[in-house]
Amino acid sequence: MRGRLDKIAADLRKGDTLLIQFGHNDASVDKPERFTTIEQYRANLRRFLDVASHAGAKAVILTPVARRDFKDGVEQPSFPTYADAARQVAHETRTPLIDLGKTSQAWVQAAGADAAKGYYLHYTGAAGAPGYPTGVADDTHFSEIGARRVADLVATGLHRLKLPIARYVTPGTPALTRATPAGGPSCG
User: Fold this and answer.
1) Do the beta carbons of residue 148 and residue 183 sit within 8 Å?
2) Residue 47 exposed, middle or buried by CB count within 10 Å (0-12, 13-18, 19+)
3) Interacting residues of 130 by C-beta distance below 8 A, sequence separation 6+
4) Maximum CA extent, the chain
5) What is the H or E stretch that residue 158 is in?
6) How far is CA 35 from CA 6, 69, 160, in A?
């Protein structure tokens, strides 16, 4: 976590809500500098929970968000062992959970394989996406529209949990559900 948890701990205050979600990089077996076993992942979730508890903050665990991964027209579960571990830790610690993996998988499935490309970094070279002069086809990282929709899924989850933060969160707002980017490929 490269010291990031220390920075979070320094900023966290009583009454704050700490959303805890990771798993994409942890599952990268081919990148040993990132890879985390399930037991290490569970321990890391508990470390974040301890930081929240120590600060008097409310923690919420989120399962890893879906990648775009269709097989025979069906969106596949992303990072299932990490999602199961997140669910288990949430259950064991009685921590609220937003099952972002399941809700985002359903959202991507509803869009369909072709339309879901618009939620991820799929740009031709002509689109002018910074850093991708020849284009990009990335089924893990979100486009602006995809990021807005994921934010809406999180807002919906927070609202359903009825935590104190929910009064400040409004799912379904035009900013989160817009169909066109506000800033283009660069979000600028």
Assistant:
1) no
2) middle
3) 185, 186
4) 50
5) helix 144-161
6) 20, 21, 32
Q: Which residues pair with 17 in a beta bridge?
A: 58
Count of H helices and E strands in the chain? 7, 7
User: What is the dihedral angle through the alpha carbons of 123, 126, 132, 134, rounded to the nearest 10 degrees?
Assistant: 100
Q: What gap in Å lies between CA 85 and CA 1, rounded to an integer? A: 18
Confidence of residue 30 (pLDDT cuts 50, 70, 90): confident
Residue 95 gets which letter from DSSP?
-
pLDDT digit string, tens, across residues 124-160: 888 878 888 899 999 999 999 999 999 999 999 999 9
* pLDDT grade for 55, boundaries at 50, 70 and 90: very high
- Site of tokens 């120590």: 54
Model pTM?
0.90
Query: In sequence order, which ranges of 27-143 are alpha helices (DSSP H)?
Result: 38-55, 80-93, 100-111, 113-116
